[in-house]
Description:
By secondary structure, the protein is α+β, with helices and mostly antiparallel strands. It is built from 1 helix and 5 strands.
Amino acid sequence: MLTTIIIGTAFVAMLQLVAAGSVNNIEGAELTTGIALARNVREYTLTSTWANLPTFNGANYSPPKDSRGVTLTNMANWQQQVTVQAVNPDNITQDIVDSSPAAVRISVVVSHNNERVCDLSWYVFDGTP
């Protein structure tokens, strides 16, 4: 009888361990996908001219886009939200209002099933002399 209780308890504990590992694998895969989707937007903006960067402000891609700007129709539950904010080039943590800024911060928030997965920000500077 005691052996049956010990084996039963061990079996239930092992099932819980397998379930916890599966949940962690799913969450890890979701985060990896989210980071890849955020980087897709970064790569896509790198192909854009300086003058076109402000047009990305407020962009909301659902389904998301790849690094070439092609819609990923098989990822309908994913979303990329883009914000472009002018910043002071001498103090990039300071947001400014400027119709022709020398520097901008581009931020992407990636969501899956309306749950925030990750966000990524980077700075771009106008290289015009």
